[in-house]
Design goal:
139 residues; 27% helix; alpha/beta; Tetrahydropterin Synthase, Chain A; 6-stranded mixed β-sheet
């Protein structure tokens, strides 16, 4: 079995609605996303011969997905009062609403599903919210 791994980072803020603790307040992270893919066969076509996938393609897709969340406030849909949300949007704040609580665990699954939808043989996605804390998702 062959394994490839690449990483990308993004900076964003979030908060955990209905949470009792420091993370109920808006705070930021330098998120690091590690994507691992695997397969038992290398390509044989002339351009990618001897490769599981082209690292350039893998990095490009992961970086693009991270760019979608870079420098924004990630919120769970319905976690802010509508007037608060509209006030932030009227100030041109970039907000990304997700249908789930924006935890590292849920973000790992989101990245997994998006990488898989791009056709990569994903083994595991790990999302670090700090250098010491990470959540991983694999099927």
């Amino acid at each position: 079995m062959y394994f490839l791994k690449t990483e990308a980072v993004f900076d964003s803020a979030h908060f955990l609605a209905d949470y009792e603790g420091k993370c109920k307040n808006i705070h930021g992270h330098r998120w690091r996303v590690a994507a691992e893919i695997c397969g038992d066969r290398l390509k044989t076509d002339p351009k990618e011969r001897g490769m599981l996938v082209d690292f350039g393609d893998l990095k490009k897709v992961l970086r693009s997905l991270c760019e979608e969340l870079d420098h924004c406030l990630i919120i769970e849909r319905g976690s802010l009062r509508e007037t608060t949300l509209q006030a932030l949007l009227s100030e041109n704040f970039r907000i990304t609403e997700l249908p789930f609580r924006p935890t590292a665990e849920n973000l790992a699954k989101l990245f997994y599903e998006k990488m898989k939808a791009q056709g990569f043989p994903v083994r595991r996605i790990s999302v670090y919210e700090s250098p010491e804390n990470c959540a991983s998702y694999e099927e």
